[in-house]
Amino acid sequence: MTSELGSTSRVTMATVAEVAGVSVASVSNALNERVGLSPEVRSRILAVADGLGYRRNTLAQELRIGRSRTVGLSVVDLANPFYADLSQGVVKTAGEHDYDVFLSSVGPESESLKEVVDGFLDRRLGGLLFTSLTNADAELLRRLQKHAIPFVKLVRDVQGVVADWVGIDDYSGGVALGDHIAATGRKTVACLGGPSDSNASAARVNGIRMGLARKGINLINEAQPNLHGTPTRMSGYNRALSLLQENKRIECIIGGNDVIAIGILDACRDNGFSVPEDIAVAGFDNMTFSSAGPLELTTVDVPREQIGAIGMKFLIERMDGFTGPPRRKFLPFDLAIRSSTSPKSD
After folding, report:
1. Which domain covers residue 130, as residue numbers?
2. What mean pLDDT comes out for the span 280-297?
3. Which terminus has fewer CB within 10 Å in the chain: N or C?
4. Does 313 score more than 70 pLDDT?
5. C-alpha dihedral over 188, 193, 196, 202, to 10 degrees?
6. Does some domain include residue 249?
7. How far apart are CA 284 and CA 200, in angstroms?
């Protein structure tokens, strides 16, 4: 549909009202999903607005209602595809509700979110989403709660801070993965998890430990500092290299995420070990690359985009005035078994 007022004119609610043959108030009601319009009139107005390419004046709306329609999303590391997928869920859902997203990547080795949060607050954002939390951030979250700033925790939780959270049961996912590794016949098993102060990373390691223990298998690096580390490919490589040099009979190495697992695969290859014939390798998250070509990595499938989408919906509800008790949303996970953990040959 083309406006008779000319393609160079800015499309306003008055423009939509003129073409649709209704009042500006009716256009406002239709665009803001208010009652008082028949379904037929509402549909006609929305069709005209869409045809004209109408875009809401977000700044004017923010000034009118007294709150921002931009939210802040803090992720650990955009180099990790996990957070790109999760961010996609946030951004898509935000757009569907006419919100914008301001993204900040704190990096996998960041010690504090304080600078990121201060930046968010300086921009007067309407709410915050966090994927990068550790238990050290508890006081920061309590400060946000004290000032009634809505936020949602994604993937990682924080002990002692009760607030909306969306993720999976990482512990149960770890148990399922540990059970599978034990069933392949491998008994000399190590785990290279993420940071110990991450609730999700610690839960994954604990679950893997339990799944193996139910079959009488203990992690060979249980008491070693390399059990936990940064969730990066290089960290996986360096820690796996140390393991391979210390224990030539190791039969399986599990990464706390798929990026760590890629580093493990690199170390195995560089040291002449074949996967899975010599050493089985598994990860966690089921990134897109995990099933690509010859890789075929066994991993736990995490619904990353869905976590972001539901988290954004929770945040919008809080910003719209929802005052109910904090919600904890556990999404289902699956175990993706592939050739990297084929049963051990006799």
Report:
1. 68-168+304-333
2. 92
3. C
4. yes
5. -80
6. yes
7. 11
Q: Rounded to whole angstroms, how far apart are CA atoms 16 and 49? A: 6
CB 163 within 8 A of CB 153: yes
Paired sense of beta strands 299-301 and 334-336, if any? antiparallel
What beta strand segments (E) does 172-226 contain?
189-192
Classified as helix, coil or strand, 297 is: coil
Residue 63 has pLDDT above 60, yes or no: no
Q: What's the rounded Cα separation, in Å, for the pair 118 and 105?
A: 14
Are 107 and 161 a contacting pair, CB within 8 Å?
no
Work out the burial of residue 315: count CB atoms within 10 Å of its CB; fewer than 13 is exposed, 13-18 middle, 19 or more buried. Answer: buried
Band of the pLDDT at 59, cuts 50, 70, 90? very low
Amino acid at 191: C
Is residue 162 a contact partner of residue 256, using CB atoms and an 8 Å limit? Answer: no
Asked if residue 5 is part of any domain, the answer here is no
Q: Name the DSSP class of 185.
A: T
Which are the contacts of 148, defined by CB distance < 8 A and separation ≥ 6?
none
Write down the pLDDT at residue 36: 77
Q: Is residue 7 part of a domain?
A: no
Residue in this structure with the two tokens 């069709």, named with its chain if needed: 47
pLDDT in tens, 123-141: 788 899 999 898 889 999 9
- Looking at the fold, whether 205 and 215 belong to one and the same domain comes out as yes
To the nearest 10 degrees (0 to 180), the angle between helices 81-96 and 304-319 is 40
Residue 6 has pLDDT above 70, yes or no: no
Residues 6+ positions from 168 with CB-CB distance below 8 Å: 302, 303, 307, 330, 331, 332, 333
120 part of a folded domain:
yes
pTM of full prediction above 0.85: no
Q: How many structural domains compose the chain?
A: 3
